[in-house]
Amino acid sequence: MGVLINAATAMLFAKGQKHDLNMKGAFLHMAGDAAVSLGVIISAFIINITGWDWLDPATSLAIVVVILIGTWGLLKDSINYSLDAVPSNVDMAGLKAYLAALPNVATFHDLHVWPMSTTENAMTVHLVVTDYLQAQSLADEIKHHVHDHFDIEHVTVQIEAADCVCKTEHQSCGVTNN
Protein backbone atom coordinates (compact mmCIF):
# COMPACT_ATOMS: atom_id res chain seq x y z
CA MET A 1 0.00 0.00 0.00
CA GLY A 2 2.84 2.39 0.86
CA VAL A 3 4.40 2.00 -2.59
CA LEU A 4 1.11 2.72 -4.34
CA ILE A 5 0.09 5.66 -2.17
CA ASN A 6 3.52 7.32 -2.30
CA ALA A 7 3.86 6.76 -6.04
CA ALA A 8 0.37 8.16 -6.67
CA THR A 9 1.11 11.18 -4.47
CA ALA A 10 4.42 11.77 -6.28
CA MET A 11 2.59 11.77 -9.61
CA LEU A 12 0.37 14.61 -8.33
CA PHE A 13 3.51 16.76 -7.99
CA ALA A 14 5.24 15.53 -11.17
CA LYS A 15 3.99 18.24 -13.53
CA GLY A 16 4.52 21.20 -11.19
CA GLN A 17 8.04 20.17 -10.14
CA LYS A 18 9.61 21.65 -13.28
CA HIS A 19 8.61 25.22 -12.35
CA ASP A 20 8.46 25.25 -8.55
CA LEU A 21 11.24 24.25 -6.18
CA ASN A 22 8.77 23.43 -3.39
CA MET A 23 6.85 21.05 -5.64
CA LYS A 24 10.12 19.50 -6.78
CA GLY A 25 11.00 18.84 -3.14
CA ALA A 26 7.60 17.28 -2.46
CA PHE A 27 7.86 15.17 -5.61
CA LEU A 28 11.35 13.90 -4.72
CA HIS A 29 10.26 13.14 -1.15
CA MET A 30 7.22 11.12 -2.21
CA ALA A 31 9.05 9.36 -5.07
CA GLY A 32 11.88 8.55 -2.66
CA ASP A 33 9.44 7.10 -0.14
CA ALA A 34 7.90 4.95 -2.88
CA ALA A 35 11.34 3.76 -4.01
CA VAL A 36 12.41 2.97 -0.44
CA SER A 37 9.24 0.99 0.21
CA LEU A 38 9.65 -0.94 -3.05
CA GLY A 39 13.33 -1.60 -2.29
CA VAL A 40 12.48 -2.95 1.16
CA ILE A 41 9.79 -5.24 -0.26
CA ILE A 42 12.04 -6.64 -2.99
CA SER A 43 14.97 -7.03 -0.59
CA ALA A 44 12.81 -8.82 2.00
CA PHE A 45 11.44 -11.16 -0.68
CA ILE A 46 14.94 -12.09 -1.91
CA ILE A 47 16.29 -12.48 1.66
CA ASN A 48 13.35 -14.74 2.51
CA ILE A 49 14.02 -16.99 -0.50
CA THR A 50 17.85 -17.04 -0.47
CA GLY A 51 18.79 -16.26 3.14
CA TRP A 52 21.22 -13.55 1.98
CA ASP A 53 21.15 -11.34 5.07
CA TRP A 54 23.85 -9.07 3.60
CA LEU A 55 21.26 -7.86 1.09
CA ASP A 56 19.51 -5.76 3.76
CA PRO A 57 22.42 -3.33 4.39
CA ALA A 58 23.35 -3.40 0.68
CA THR A 59 19.81 -2.33 -0.23
CA SER A 60 19.96 0.42 2.40
CA LEU A 61 23.21 1.76 0.90
CA ALA A 62 21.78 1.61 -2.63
CA ILE A 63 18.72 3.56 -1.49
CA VAL A 64 20.95 6.21 0.14
CA VAL A 65 22.93 6.62 -3.11
CA VAL A 66 19.75 6.93 -5.19
CA ILE A 67 18.32 9.55 -2.82
CA LEU A 68 21.58 11.56 -2.79
CA ILE A 69 21.79 11.57 -6.57
CA GLY A 70 18.12 12.45 -6.91
CA THR A 71 18.22 15.34 -4.47
CA TRP A 72 21.57 16.88 -5.48
CA GLY A 73 19.83 19.23 -7.95
CA LEU A 74 17.33 20.26 -5.28
CA LEU A 75 20.15 21.12 -2.88
CA LYS A 76 21.98 23.10 -5.58
CA ASP A 77 18.82 25.04 -6.52
CA SER A 78 18.05 25.75 -2.85
CA ILE A 79 21.53 27.16 -2.29
CA ASN A 80 21.22 29.29 -5.44
CA TYR A 81 17.88 30.67 -4.24
CA SER A 82 19.31 31.52 -0.84
CA LEU A 83 22.22 33.34 -2.50
CA ASP A 84 19.92 35.20 -4.96
CA ALA A 85 21.79 33.61 -7.88
CA VAL A 86 20.39 33.85 -11.41
CA PRO A 87 17.63 31.22 -11.67
CA SER A 88 18.52 28.27 -13.88
CA ASN A 89 15.48 28.84 -16.10
CA VAL A 90 16.65 32.32 -17.16
CA ASP A 91 18.77 32.51 -20.32
CA MET A 92 21.17 35.31 -19.37
CA ALA A 93 23.03 35.18 -22.69
CA GLY A 94 19.74 35.53 -24.56
CA LEU A 95 18.60 38.33 -22.25
CA LYS A 96 21.85 40.25 -22.79
CA ALA A 97 21.61 39.75 -26.55
CA TYR A 98 18.02 41.02 -26.52
CA LEU A 99 18.93 44.16 -24.56
CA ALA A 100 22.01 44.87 -26.70
CA ALA A 101 19.99 44.55 -29.93
CA LEU A 102 17.28 47.03 -28.90
CA PRO A 103 17.06 50.11 -31.10
CA ASN A 104 17.99 53.31 -29.30
CA VAL A 105 20.07 51.44 -26.68
CA ALA A 106 23.72 52.48 -26.77
CA THR A 107 24.69 50.15 -23.91
CA PHE A 108 23.41 48.76 -20.62
CA HIS A 109 24.89 48.03 -17.21
CA ASP A 110 23.95 46.82 -13.74
CA LEU A 111 21.85 43.95 -15.11
CA HIS A 112 20.71 41.79 -12.20
CA VAL A 113 18.30 38.82 -12.24
CA TRP A 114 17.32 36.95 -9.08
CA PRO A 115 14.52 34.75 -7.75
CA MET A 116 11.84 36.45 -5.64
CA SER A 117 10.30 33.09 -4.81
CA THR A 118 10.37 29.59 -6.23
CA THR A 119 8.03 30.69 -9.03
CA GLU A 120 8.80 34.39 -9.72
CA ASN A 121 11.93 36.17 -10.87
CA ALA A 122 12.95 39.83 -10.79
CA MET A 123 15.27 41.95 -12.92
CA THR A 124 16.83 45.39 -12.80
CA VAL A 125 18.86 47.03 -15.55
CA HIS A 126 20.24 50.46 -16.43
CA LEU A 127 19.89 51.32 -20.12
CA VAL A 128 21.87 54.07 -21.79
CA VAL A 129 19.74 55.37 -24.68
CA THR A 130 20.52 57.62 -27.61
CA ASP A 131 16.99 59.10 -27.85
CA TYR A 132 15.77 59.96 -24.38
CA LEU A 133 12.24 60.89 -25.58
CA GLN A 134 11.44 57.27 -26.48
CA ALA A 135 12.47 55.99 -23.06
CA GLN A 136 8.99 55.30 -21.65
CA SER A 137 7.78 53.20 -24.57
CA LEU A 138 11.10 51.31 -24.60
CA ALA A 139 10.82 50.45 -20.91
CA ASP A 140 7.25 49.17 -21.36
CA GLU A 141 8.30 47.09 -24.38
CA ILE A 142 11.16 45.53 -22.40
CA LYS A 143 8.88 44.63 -19.49
CA HIS A 144 6.44 42.78 -21.75
CA HIS A 145 9.14 41.02 -23.77
CA VAL A 146 11.13 39.93 -20.70
CA HIS A 147 7.94 38.63 -19.06
CA ASP A 148 6.86 36.68 -22.14
CA HIS A 149 10.25 35.32 -23.25
CA PHE A 150 12.41 35.08 -20.13
CA ASP A 151 9.84 34.31 -17.40
CA ILE A 152 10.71 37.40 -15.36
CA GLU A 153 7.74 38.91 -13.54
CA HIS A 154 9.12 42.00 -11.80
CA VAL A 155 11.19 44.31 -14.00
CA THR A 156 12.75 47.65 -13.16
CA VAL A 157 14.31 49.57 -16.05
CA GLN A 158 16.34 52.67 -15.34
CA ILE A 159 16.88 54.91 -18.38
CA GLU A 160 19.93 57.12 -18.78
CA ALA A 161 20.67 59.51 -21.62
CA ALA A 162 23.80 58.64 -23.60
CA ASP A 163 25.07 62.22 -23.40
CA CYS A 164 24.72 62.37 -19.59
CA VAL A 165 27.94 62.21 -17.63
CA CYS A 166 27.34 60.75 -14.17
CA LYS A 167 29.43 61.90 -11.25
CA THR A 168 29.69 58.43 -9.75
CA GLU A 169 29.23 54.92 -11.01
CA HIS A 170 25.95 54.48 -9.12
CA GLN A 171 24.42 57.91 -9.76
CA SER A 172 21.58 57.99 -12.26
CA CYS A 173 21.10 60.67 -14.89
CA GLY A 174 17.69 59.58 -16.13
CA VAL A 175 14.21 58.46 -15.17
CA THR A 176 13.24 55.24 -13.48
CA ASN A 177 10.36 53.09 -14.67
CA ASN A 178 9.12 50.48 -12.16
Characterise the protein shown here:
This protein has 178 residues and is an alpha+beta fold. The protein has a four-stranded mixed sheet with strand order 1-2-3-4, covered by helices on one side. The N and C termini lie far apart (53 Å). The C terminus is likely disordered.
Annotate the secondary structure layout:
Blueprint: H1 2-14, H2 21-50, H3 55-82, H4 92-101, E1 105-115, E2 121-129, H5 135-150, E3 154-161, E4 175-177
Parallel strand pairs: 2-3
Antiparallel strand pairs: 1-2, 3-4
Helix pairs in contact: 1-2, 2-3
For this entry, give a set of tags.
rod-shaped, disordered C terminus, 5 helices, 178 residues, four-stranded mixed beta sheet, alpha+beta
Rounded to an integer, what's the Rg over CA atoms?
25 Å
The chain-level mean pLDDT equals: 84
Separation, N- and C-terminal Cα atoms? 53 Å
Per DSSP E runs of 2 or more residues, the count of β-strands stands at 4
Spatial strand arrangement across the major sheet: 1-2-3-4
Q: What is the H/E order?
A: HHHHEEHEE
The major β-sheet equals: 4 strands, mixed
Structural class: alpha+beta
